[in-house]
Structure formats: C-alpha cells, structure tokens
Amino acid sequence: MNPGKSDKHLKIGMLGCGVVGSQVARLMLESSEDLNARSGATLELVKIAVRDLKTERPGINPAILTTDADSVVNDPDIDIVIEVMGGIEPARTLVLQAMQNGKSVVTANKAMLGRHGAEMFKAAMKNKVDLYYEASVAGAIPILRPMGESLAGDYVRRVMGIVNGTTNYILTKMDESGASFADALKEAQALGYAEADPTADVEGFDAAAKIAILATLAFHTEVIDTEVSREGISGITAEDVAVAKSLGLVVKLIAIAELNNKEEISVRVHPTMLARTHPLASVRDSYNAVFVEAESAGELMFYGRGAGGAPTASAILGDLVEVARHKVDGGLGAPETDYADLDMAPIGSMPTRYLIRLEVLDIPGVLASVANTFAHHNISIQTVRQTGRDDRAELIVMTHMALDKDLANTVAELAKLDTVKEVASVIRVEGTLS
Ligand code: HSE
C-alpha cells in the first residue's frame, strides 16, 4: 500500500532552528520522498523563524528564514507548525496563536507543556487541531504515545525514569572514574552535554517538567512541574558514589510518579541510590530510560537517546507524519484526558528507604545514641556499617521504609548530638538489595 497517492500538499512552518531544528530541516529534505509516501501528502518546509539570520545553516534555503515568528503562526498557507525554540515564552503564546489559526502543532517543548500543558491541550481541542509532543520527554524514545495510547486500557501504578541525559552522563563519570561532581560537570560541558549554565539539568528542573508530563498521561490527571518535589545532584560527592558502589548501588537522578495507597499521586525528582540489579541501573552515559509498572501489563522499559539533534528530530518527524496523516484522512489524534483528577500526595508523604552517612566520634555509646535517635522517630534501621578513622568513625545507616518528615526530624536531632561531627549525606534508596 502506498498512501502517498493523495494530492494533498501540506506547508510546514518551524519556530526555531538550533541543534534540533536544523536536524529536522535536514531530515525533511533528505527523507522527503519517504516522508511524503508515509504521510500520504507532500510536506514542504516553507518558513523557519530564527533569532539571527546571519548564522550559517548549510542546506537550508535562506529565503525561507525570517526573524518574525508571528509571520509563521499567522501565515494562512501554513498547515502545521513545528515548535523547537524551547522555553515557556514566547513559545506558549506563539503555539496558542498557531492553534487558534487552525494549525496543528508538533513541539519538543517540555518547559511549556510541563507548566501549561492543560491550557495548551484544551486550546488544541477547542480549535480541533493536533498538538503532538513526543520529543518533549526523553528525546527519541517513544514513551508518550505508548503511555497515552497503548496503555490507555491499563492502570499505571508507577513511572520511574532517567529523563535527563546531562545528569546521567555526570553521574556515570563519577561512578566510573571516582571524579568529583565539579570535574564530571566540566567534562559534560566540554562535550556539549551540559550548558554553560547547567542549573536546569543539574538541579532537576528539566526532569521535573518531564515527569510532570509523564504523570499527567499516566494518571489522567493534570500535574504541573511546580508540584513536583525536586532535588538535584549538585550535592552528590565522590564519597557518596564510592559508598554506593561498595554496597552494590549506583547513584542516579530518578524522576518518579506513583500512586500511594490512598490513590494520591506522588511526583518527585531526586538523587537515588539504585540497586545495580535494577533495570535502570544499567542506563549509562547520556542515555535515558523510563520504567513503567502497570496493573495488567506489568513492568515495561523504554530506553534510548534522550537528547541531541538527530534523535530528537526523529521523534518530531514521527509526530509530523502522524499529524499529516490526520490532515489527509480527517480526524485528530487521541485527546489528553484529565478526567481522573486525582489528588497530589503531600510532599514527603511517600515512604522510601534512606542511606545516611555520619561522621561520629569513635567512643563508647555512640552507636547506641545514634540508633536511639532513629528509634525515637519510629524509623527502623536495616543495616549499619562502621569504618574507623583514627578517633572518628564513618557510620553508614540504611533504613527500612521511612517517611520523609520522620527522616528529616531524625537528621535534625542527629546533627545536634555532640558525638556526631557531621551528617555527610542523606540519599534515598530504590530497588531490591542483594
Ligand atoms: N538537557 C536535556 C538533557 C535534554 O540533558 O537530557 C533536553 O531535554
């Protein structure tokens, strides 16, 4: 079958032409015959809004470049807009305008959808256009359509992902070579993974927006990035990574969205010590992966390149072909549903296991007072390891499941003990330990 028989000619406008946009433009030119055959229409990239007309853009006809983004979204001839400019504004206003003008939109913008997804999807429905966004979470990995469509008949209980490649690269280097966070970050910057200002990646903002998008789909409930409890990796030390290694664990920045036993959603991003036997533990370098647990499907894992020009462009072109098919055949893609409208669990209300590293005086009674402090806050200790260092000792305490607030109170009390010189770190633990 060759659906490319239709004589439909679809004009495409693009907002942005950076690392991702330039790859979308290149692939649209290089693969045009196949994209046309697969979508059933002739797809033509007719206009690209850029910040600077002088930037070298090999292979792109300069005549289709403009600095006037409004002229793309308001062009009556344009049928589909691809948004790859990133950031919340002006992207949000431009995309809303495009949809109001009857254009379907394909976007890679997690910041915009992580904050304003509900508004944007309502606008798409109202204007009877498609808003596709596979590239916004985990780059090339097909995860949003499987979540929103293939799993639409199931009940997702938990989504757990490594959805930021920069931090995964940094933590992998720290694990492999014992490097400090600062040195691993410098290496990531030199290789172009981390930005000059790495805050969005290393402090977990990028992952928070992505898990908000995933949680919205998984639980049919609007979740926005500011509701995500977030902690980044800038406080992770070489010692934390070495201790994890010695215990058969690996430190990862994990984004989690899960249901508690009251059917409330807990959504969080934080460094996690993961058992090396967990499927996510083997996701190294800048790769991403999303691990899904659903009632009937069981465990599923999606793995691949979460960033980069060509991988992200692959997801965008997949969406573009799908949206173009709808323009040929009529109809629209599956709408977003937020009918379940579940409550968000209060931050810190989900129990987790913790690993606490303490530097203490190596004198009689110290272990007892530390153990008492945990007991006082109703936290059960699973294991304790002590390593002597002159008159000091390092205590590594692994807890059973404990609540965030109980742990915080325990740590505050431990820090006040004369015999505790330092609470060096407190990190959550996931997965079955061997
Ligand atoms: N900065 C992101 C990452 C890629 O490192 O994964 C785009 O979302």
Task: Describe the overall structure.
Strands 7, 8, 9, 10, 11, 12, 13, 14, 15 and 16 form a 10-stranded mixed beta sheet that branches. A 6-stranded parallel beta sheet has the order 3-2-1-4-5-6, with helices on both faces. 36% of the residues lie in helices and 26% in strands. The chain has 3 domains: 8-139 and 309-329, 3-Layer(aba) Sandwich (Rossmann fold); 144-305, Dihydrodipicolinate Reductase, domain 2 (2-Layer Sandwich); 351-430, Alpha-Beta Plaits (2-Layer Sandwich), CATH 3.30.70.260. It is elongated, with a radius of gyration of 24 Å. The chain has helices at residues 19-30, 32-39, 69-73, 91-100, 110-126, 144-150, 165-177, 181-190, 199-202, 205-219, 238-246, 309-329, 366-376, 404-416, and strands spanning 9-15, 42-49, 65-66, 80-83, 104-107, 131-132, 156-162, 229-230, 249-259, 265-275, 287-294, 298-305, 353-361, 381-389, 392-399, 420-430. With 434 residues, it is an alpha/beta fold. Helix 4 runs parallel beside helix 5 and helix 7 (165-177) crosses helix 8. Bound molecules: L-homoserine. Residues 110, 164-166, 201, 206, 306-307 line the site of L-homoserine. L-homoserine (HSE) is lined by residues 110, 164-166, 201, 206, 306-307.
Number of domains: 3
Tell me the number of helical segments per DSSP (H or I, 4 or more residues long).
Answer: 14
* Average pLDDT reading: 95
In angstroms, what is the radius of gyration?
24 Å
N-to-C SSE string, H for helix and E for strand: EHHEEHEHEHEHEHHHHEHEEEEHEHEEHE
For the largest beta-sheet, the strand count, sense and barrel status come to:
10 strands, mixed
Q: Any idea what the shape is?
A: elongated
The count of strands amounts to 16
Helix content: 25-40%
Q: Would you tell me the structural class of the helices and strands?
A: alpha/beta
What is the highest CATH level, the class of the largest domain? Alpha Beta
Provide the CATH topology of the largest domain: Dihydrodipicolinate Reductase, domain 2
Assign the CATH superfamily of the largest domain.
Answer: Dihydrodipicolinate Reductase, domain 2
Uncertain parts:
none
Q: State which percent range the strand residues make up.
A: 25-35%
* Corresponding CATH architecture of the largest domain: 2-Layer Sandwich
Q: In angstroms, what separates the terminal alpha carbons? A: 52 Å
